[in-house]
Design brief:
The complex is a heterotrimer of chains A (326), B (582) and C (293). Chain A has 326 residues and is α+β, with helices and mostly antiparallel strands. Chain A has a 5-stranded mixed sheet. Chain A has a two-stranded antiparallel sheet with strand order 6-7. Chain C has 2 domains: 119 residues, Glutathione S-transferase Yfyf (Class Pi), Chain A, domain 2; 152 residues, Rossmann fold (3-Layer(aba) Sandwich). At the A-C interface, α7, α10, α11, α12 and α13 of A face α2, α3, α7 and α9 of C.
């Protein structure tokens, strides 16, 4: 079949991007990478992109196809054309373009380095034989360890798009992989480190990373696991992000539904203790009062099932406590 | 000009392991690593099955000597036994090293590293990480490169090995992103440049496996060894060529012909080990089945069947193989067999080295400043045929060894002196001449013609006539390349076509070296099967072949050197060359 | 046949975005959709319960779903986040192992999660159950000429992986609704992306930059207003729009409508009744353009 392929071209870092359309003879079972190769080999040798293993393991060939990042050696033409009439191929997002579909991944690698992405055994007695690791201890690292560092998640990350400090889903998935490794001896420092600005709390939970990850890392779930570990720490310095989570549980336990004004005061102003937080809420509050939008506490109606919910959350909390989880 | 104490070319398992070894032992040294792809994209990452070592976690009666024997026998007695001894004795330690670095090996119930059977190995000694072993190891090694802040020349291509006055002084390198040309000078250069699967038309290797390091070495006037031994892995997924890991047969898969037979039972050299026979034997039998018209529906492939293993085992033990079938062919191996045929997988030959990774010249003396390790090197631990699970092992054992050796070696070696300008000028001339190619032939067409010629004339079966035909065709294609090549891209920013043109030079050189070596070895041994000389001939050919450019660099010369048989003193009965039976 | 649903209002529609509850119940009346409110339900946790522990999210929402099951009705949500969170739990428990359901049920005192119902957003109820043709029939005031940009919300598109109502990167149900109402859909980059709300309480710069990018893109694409099926997106895009303007250094002033408000206008409901005056960014341009027809 003939397929129309629209590719974003850019001659250099400074050049203006442009789109070029190619017509390619291929079959539904061809991968997107096959199509790119056909273009480069048979039609236009000037097209630049990265590729290597063509077997979904080296991570070179991630690009945006029809609007989201994929491994081009993994996705098939037939699947892509199920509801689209042409293939639209663009470079990964959130990274500067070097040429055509090739992006500069320096920031991606530097962000990875920031989480200290190696298992540290420096302070442990190094045995002559292997460290023991039970199959179930290894199993919980598997999905994070599947990561091929292709950059698909980073490309679609909403937080990385606006926040220069955010290390990104790939780095945090790796962070979980090393933090949760029973052989690593820096768990405590890592928890502190990932709790900092640029770490897990800067993720906005948009699910893009889970959605596009070609190898089942599900970075968002790994980020959640780091957050769980942080929230389990008793002696963690308080922060708005932590209060946000804890207050949610507290208020739902009390009333079933969230009393938003109470939530705002508790989380942002630390129950009035954080003056800066309090001041930051004033314009919003004023606006809401003026527009009749203010969720006044006296207008709030708890759920009719609030006692049941309280009992439920208490029982679940007890269960989690028994398991040493909170 | 950039200066380094050590420059490592290639960032796969051998190169990364060497870099880590150097910084761990000699943190003061200035190490550079140069690679045309990001190290984490190197082909090592695709290795699936595992890495052999006599940890004795499963089979307690295993021993390094047993591992050595399996390796020597698998090599059809062409492996150097001193090198095999180093390989197999070091194996347990290097595995433990990797484990301490954080590699996620699959585990036994009690938490020790798991070990499984593998073709050609007489005990369960293959350590693995599900079926992504290379990935598991390389990612931890590269993380450690990050950890130690190793300088990496990312996406730089080496144009020339600087070999003058009998020593190696550095390389001339080309930055793919910017087109910048630099001389990188070093007290020691380590080649860890991998294999050359792309010389053939069906290969499990990645696009980058173009034998650049071998070509650079040969072009510098240095010899290559045992180049005729090209390993075809029996189970390349048809038609794409990507690998279905040997681990799949390790777990009990069947090879089935069109008549529904497990045909390995019908051959005398494979009826005992069946599907777990060594790769050369298995590959030949698949081709023989196909030639006899017993390929599936008379096509060029047979079936690899795992259905009897059951869903659970397939999902837990060989998930990647299943995923490959589904992704590339839409076949779920839980329900249906996978079509397979042999695919070029590994290069037994390469740059001859001592067991300390020092590169040997034509006169068999080490070249000062030059080292090689991994697939590009020929120590030789694989001889005429490599056993599965021994290549990752080779990379790590000799990568580490090279790092340790070089770390000590450069301590009292001064920075070599060289004149930079002529090298830069020559490189500029080369690049310019390629960018000015205005003929009619596309690179892809010439490359495909070369790959087809090599596959046709020097594949699993070869003879004098076919090899000579191959040499003629390569000559013709080289002329076409010189006279009629055309490039669409004449820029210097990430010019992939220029890269392809440079890599095609490597393919030509490596192809010629394979053909020339194959021609002079008039016997069949391991992966080298001559239809016109079907027997092994120890009297004449129990020796390594050497191949190199003539002094004036216009012709190719060959020579031979002896095989080390030193383990005969330990166990004469087993290590004395004998017929290879399984 | 009357369509009848177990109505899960969510926190925000009963508080800061009360207009959402009013407009949903308003259009339901006109369309003849019967809503039985789940009075005993609780907050879904908006994705943060999982960050304490997944089991907390599972049990709390299994209980919510069980309340709908007890009525023998499909649960209707009107918030992308509620939909994504509760729908995800339903997917997980419904299609997962029996042991998971048993474990959850141990904690649901007096209720029993069975996995017999669906969790469905108002948007999909309109598109799939009610039907766009039927909706078209009910239009009193065509929104002809009104250019609407959709803002879907992450959880609606990507929260659930088992039950998929549409392609997370090429959704069109909101645009289809716009067309049915006579309005013109405006496509722009960002309509499937994050509004920034989850970060609004602490990473305000990042949060408002996200909102700003998308609002700007919609304006540049020519949208008169943005329509969202998510009250949390609404909070960040509307209530915080003045802060968003400050962060990106540009005037925006684009009205943000809840989906049922837009439908309500087309059905001829009174803007006041739809709570269109309760917005931070004035909706009068939209109201005027509709009423002037």
């Amino acid at each position: 079949m003939k397929v129309s392929v629209r590719i974003r071209r850019q001659a250099s870092r400074e050049s203006k991007p442009d789109y070029q359309t190619y017509s390619v003879e291929c079959s539904e079972g061809n991968t997107i990478l096959d199509v790119l190769n056909k273009i480069q080999w048979e039609q236009d040798g000037s097209l630049a992109y990265r590729r290597n293993c063509r077997n979904a393991i080296c991570g070179s060939c991630a690009m945006r196809v029809n609007g989201r990042a994929v491994l081009t050696c993994q996705n098939l033409v037939g699947e892509e054309l199920e509801d689209q009439t042409e293939l639209l191929i663009q470079p990964l997002g959130n990274l500067p373009v070097i040429k055509d579909l090739v992006v500069d991944m320096t920031k991606f690698w530097n962000n990875l380095k920031k989480v200290d992405p190696y298992v540290s055994t420096a302070s442990r007695q190094i045995p002559e034989k292997e460290f023991l690791q039970l199959p179930e201890q290894r199993e919980k690292l598997q999905s994070a360890a599947n990561c091929i560092l292709c950059g698909a998640c980073y490309s679609e990350c909403n937080s990385a798009a606006v926040n220069d400090d955010f290390v990104g889903p790939h780095a945090l998935a790796k962070a979980y992989r090393v933090m949760a490794d029973n052989r690593d001896d820096r768990t405590k420092e890592r928890i502190e480190q990932y709790n900092q600005s640029g770490g897990v709390w800067d993720c906005t939970r948009c699910f893009n990373c889970n959605e596009v990850c070609p190898v089942g890392v599900e970075p968002l779930d790994r980020i959640s696991q780091i957050k769980q570990t942080i929230l389990q720490q008793e002696k963690m310095e308080d922060s708005t992000a932590l209060r946000h989570r804890r207050t949610m549980v507290e208020l739902v336990k009390e009333d079933g539904w969230i009393d938003e004004s109470k939530f705002g005061l508790k989380v942002v102003t630390d129950s009035g203790r954080d003056l800066k937080g309090l001041v930051s809420l004033i314009p919003l509050g004023t606006r809401m009062v003026v527009k009749g939008k203010m969720p006044w506490p006296w207008k709030f109606k708890p759920s009719a099932g609030k006692l049941e919910i309280k009992a439920l959350i208490n029982a679940v909390s007890q269960h989690l406590k028994d398991q040493g989880k909170i | 000009m950039f200066d380094h104490d050590v420059l490592i070319v290639g960032g796969g398992l051998a190169g990364s392991r060497a870099a880590v070894a150097i910084v761990q032992n000699e943190p003061g040294l200035k190490v550079g690593l140069i690679s045309k792809v990001h190290p984490i994209r190197s082909h090592s990452v695709a290795a699936q099955g595992g890495m052999a070592a006599t940890l004795k976690n499963v089979d307690t009666e295993d021993s390094w000597l047993a591992h050595a024997f399996d390796t020597v026998k698998g090599s059809d007695y062409l492996a150097d036994q001193n090198a095999v001894e180093v390989l197999t004795r070091s194996a347990p330690d290097v595995i433990i090293d990797l484990e301490h670095l954080g590699v996620l090996f699959s585990r036994l119930e009690d938490g020790r590293i798991a070990q499984r059977p593998f073709g050609g190995h007489s005990y369960r000694r293959t350590c693995y990480a599900a079926d992504k072993t290379g990935h598991a190891i390389l990612h931890e090694l590269v993380s450690n490169l990050f950890r130690y802040g190793t300088k990496v020349y990312l996406e730089w291509y080496v144009l020339q090995l600087i070999h003058e006055e009998g020593e190696v002084k550095g390389v001339v390198a080309y930055c793919i992103e910017t087109g910048e040309i630099e001389v990188i000078r070093a007290k020691a250069v380590l080649f860890a440049t991998g294999g050359y699967g792309r010389v053939y038309n069906t290969t499990s290797n990645d696009f980058a496996s173009t034998g650049d390091g071998l070509c650079l070495t040969a072009t510098a006037g240095l010899p290559l060894q045992d180049m005729e031994f090209v390993q075809f892995h029996p189970t390349g997924l048809y038609p794409v060529g990507v690998l279905i890991s040997e681990a799949v047969r390790g777990e009990g898969a069947y090879l089935i012909n069109d008549q529904g037979e497990r045909f390995m039972a019908n051959y005398s050299d494979s009826h005992n080990k069946m599907e777990l026979s060594p790769r050369d034997i298995t590959s030949r039998h698949i081709v023989q089945e196909v030639r006899a018209g017993r390929g599936i529906k008379r096509g060029p492939f047979v079936h690899l069947d795992v259905r009897h293993l059951g869903r659970e085992k397939i999902i837990s033990r060989i998930p990647f193989a299943r995923e490959e079938g589904m992704r590339l062919l839409g076949i779920d191996c839980i329900d249906a067999p996978l079509p397979v045929r042999p695919t070029v997988h590994y290069s037994m030959g390469g740059i001859p080295t001592t067991v300390d990774c020092e590169v040997l010249g034509v006169d068999r003396k080490p070249i000062p400043g030059f080292f090689a390790a991994g697939e590009c090197a020929c120590v030789s631990v694989h001889g005429a045929n490599r056993l599965g699970s021994n290549s990752l092992l080779e990379c790590v054992v000799f990568g580490k060894r090279a790092g340790e050796k070089i770390g000590a070696y450069v301590q009292d070696r001064p920075m070599p002196t060289l004149e930079e300008r002529p090298y830069v000028q020559e490189a500029e001339k080369l690049i310019k001449s390629l960018l000015n190619k205005k003929g009619t032939a596309r690179i892809h067409d010439i490359r495909t013609a070369l790959q087809d010629a090599m596959t046709e004339h020097c594949g699993i079966f070869r003879d004098q006539q076919s090899i000579q035909k191959g040499l003629q065709e390569v000559q013709k294609l080289k002329e076409r390349y010189e006279k009629d090549l055309n490039l669409d891209d004449r820029g210097t920013i990430f010019n992939m076509e220029l890269m392809a043109a440079l890599e095609l030079r490597s393919l030509f050189t490596v192809g010629e070296m394979i053909l020339a070596s194959a021609l002079q070895r008039r016997e069949s041994r391991g992966a080298h099967y001559r239809s016109d000389y079907q027997q092994r001939d120890d009297a004449q050919f129990l020796k390594h072949s050497l191949v190199y450019l003539s002094q004036d660099k216009t012709g190719i010369e060959t020579n031979t050197c002896a095989v080390d048989l030193s383990l005969q003193t330990v166990d004469p009965e087993r290590f004395m060359p004998q017929e290879r039976k399984y | 046949m009357t369509l009848k649903y177990a109505y899960y209002p969510g926190c925000v529609a009963k508080g800061a975005c009360k207009e959402l509850h009013d407009s949903t119940t308003g259009i339901a009346r006109v369309l003849g959709i019967e809503l039985v409110e789940l009075e005993k339900a609780s907050c879904c946790g908006s994705g943060t319960f999982k960050e304490t522990d997944e089991f907390l999210e599972d049990t709390v929402n299994a209980r919510n779903i069980a309340l709908a099951e007890e009525l023998g009705l499909t649960m209707m949500t009107q918030c992308s986040t509620c939909q994504g969170v509760i729908g995800r739990v339903n997917d997980k428990l419904k299609y997962g192992e029996q042991s998971q359901r048993d474990h959850v049920n141990q904690y649901l005192d007096g209720h029993h999660y069975q996995g017999t119902t669906e969790v469905k957003h108002l948007l999909w109820i309109l598109v799939q159950d009610y039907g766009l043709d039927a909706l078209k029939q009910k239009v009193q005031k065509s929104l002809n000429g009104l250019k609407c940009g959709a803002f879907y919300g992450c959880y609606l598109l990507r929260g659930q992986t088992m039950t998929r109502y549409e392609d997370p990167y090429h959704p069109h149900s909101l645009e289809d609704v716009f067309t049915a109402l006579g309005a013109t859909p405006i496509e722009y980059e960002g309509r499937t992306q994050c509004c920034g709300w989850p970060l609004a309480s602490y990473a305000t710069n990042a949060s408002f930059s996200m909102a700003g990018r998308h609002l700007l893109a919609a304006i540049e694409a020519g949208a008169d207003c943005i329509v969202t099926p998510c009250p949390l997106c609404h909070l960040n895009l509307d209530s915080r729009q003045p802060e968003v303007e400050k962060v990106i250094g540009k005037k925006l002033g684009i009205p943000i409508l809840h989906l049922p408000q837009l439908i309500g206008l087309a059905l001829g409901l009174n803007p006041e009744q739809l709570g269109l005056s309760r917005h931070i960014v004035s909706t009068s341009s939209v109201i005027n353009s509709v009423l002037s027809r």
